[in-house]
Amino acid sequence: MKISKKIQECALSPMRKFHPYAVKAEEQGKKIYKLNIGQPDIKTPEQYFDAVRNFEQPVLAYAPSPGLPEMVNSLVNYYKGIGSNFEAEDVIVTTGGSEALSILFACILDEGSEVIIPEPFYPNYNTMIRTAGGKITPIHTTPEEGYRYAVKEKIEACINENTRAIMVTNPGNPTGVVLTREEMQVIADIAKEHDIYVIGDEVYREFVYGGEPLASMSQIKEIEQNVVVVDSVSKRFSACGARIGALMSKNKELMGQAMKMAQARLSVATLDQVASAALYQCDSSYFDATREEYKKRRDTCYAMIKKIPGVVCAEPQGAFYMMAALPVDDADKFNQWLLEEFEDNHETVMFAPGGGFYTGGKGKNEVRIAYVLKQADLERAMELLGLGIAQYRKEVMGCND
C-alpha cells in the first residue's frame, strides 16, 4: 500500500522526537530539565475552571461551526481593545492555532504554491503547508544578524509567480524577534504591491519585553483585505490544553471558503469554548505579571548562555524562546548525548535541535531553548548546558579548550 508523497516530505517535530530518549533517561534515574517544548508553567487563570464548574446545560451539543457567540465576541472585543476592527463574521474559532493554519493553507494553496517564511521557523508550518500542496520559500537569516528579516530586498527576492503569502510569527518562535512598526509596514507594503496574503501568527502577542504596545498586522488598515491573523488562548492564558484558536480576516471571500472547512469538521469543542471565552475576562494585571516573569527568565537565560564560550546568540525581544548557535558539531547528536551519556549529580538537560527549524540542512549546530522553567530550574538547566558543552567538546569532538 502507498503512502502520500506529501506526508513523506514532512518530518517529525524536533521539539518532541527525543521523547523516547528522555523517557529512558528518566527510567535510569536522571532528572531532566526540559527546554525543548513551549509549555508554560504559569497558572491558568481561575476563570477557565470556574466556567467549566458552572456549566449546567443538560446536553453537551455541537457548537456552531464558526464558534460559540460568546467565544467569537470575546475575540472581537479583545481586538477592538488593541485597535483592530474585526466583526463576528470575520472570525472562525478553531481547534488551536494549528487548525487555523491547516484551514487557511487548504484555502489559499494549490500544488506548487509557495509561502515566504523567515527561517528559522516553527517546524509544524512545513507539515501544514506541504500537506496542502505548497512549499516554504525561506527568507534566510543568521544568528550573527539577530535573525532579523524585514528587509524589502530580502523579501522581494523570494517572490515569484507561485507566491501566495508572506507569513510572520510576531513575536517570533523560535527566535524571539519582535517586528518594529516600521518593519511591519515594510511587509505590508510588499504584500499590497504584489497582491499576496500576509499571515500573522500572533499567539505570543502579550509577551514583549521592551514596553512596546501590543501589535497586530490587522492594525494596518490599508492591507486589511490581505491580512489573515492566527490566534490562540494556548500561550496568552497558559491554556495549551484547551486547544482553542481562531482564524480571522476581513477578506470575506477567503472566510467564506474557510467556512467550508469549518463546516466539514463540524465544530470546535463546546465546553472548551465556554471556558476559553471566560479567560478574556482577565484584567491587564494578569498579563503584566506574566510578562514580568518571562522577562526575568529571558534575562537569566540570556545572561547565562552568553557566558558559555563560543555561543552566538541575540537577545530575544519577545515570546519565550531563544535561538542560539552552539560550539558543537551537531545539535541532534549533542542532544542525544546529553540524554544518554551526560549527567551531573544525576541531572541533565534537553532542548530542541535547530535543524528542524530550517529548510535545506541549515541550523545544524543551532538550538531552540524554551525558557519556560521556574527561575531556579532555569539557572540549573543553563549551568548543565554549559557543563555539557564543555564535556562534549572534550570527549566527543576531541577539542582541548
List keywords for this structure.
13 strands; alpha/beta; Aspartate Aminotransferase, domain 2; 2 domains; Aspartate Aminotransferase, domain 1; seven-stranded mixed β-sheet; 13 helices; four-stranded antiparallel β-sheet; single chain; 401 residues
What is the secondary structure topology, with strand pairs?
Elements: H1 5-8, H2 19-27, E1 31-34, H3 46-53, H4 69-81, E2 91-94, H5 96-108, E3 114-119, H6 124-131, E4 135-140, H7 152-156, E5 163-169, H8 181-194, E6 197-201, E7 227-232, E8 245-248, H9 252-264, H10 270-279, H11 284-305, E9 312-313, E10 321-325, H12 331-340, E11 347-350, E12 352-353, E13 366-370, H13 375-395
Parallel strand pairs: 1-11, 3-4, 3-5, 5-6, 6-7
Antiparallel strand pairs: 2-8, 7-8, 9-10, 10-13, 12-13
Helix pairs in contact: 3-10, 4-10, 5-6, 5-9, 11-13
| CATH architecture descriptor of the largest domain | 3-Layer(aba) Sandwich
Mean pLDDT: 96
* CATH homology superfamily of the largest domain: Type I PLP-dependent aspartate aminotransferase-like (Major domain)
Q: What fraction of the residues are assigned to beta strands by DSSP? A: 5-15%
Q: For the terminal residues, how far apart are their CA atoms?
A: 53 Å
Overall number of structural domains: 2
Which H/E pattern describes the elements? HHEHHEHEHEHEHEEEHHHEEHEEEH
Order of strands in the sheet with the most strands?
2-8-7-6-5-3-4
CATH class of the largest domain: Alpha Beta
- Could you name the ranges where pLDDT drops below 50 across 5 or more consecutive residues? none
The structural class is alpha/beta
Q: What count of helical segments does DSSP give? A: 13
What's the alpha carbon Rg, rounded to whole Å?
21 Å
Main sheet, how many strands, which sense, barrel? 7 strands, mixed
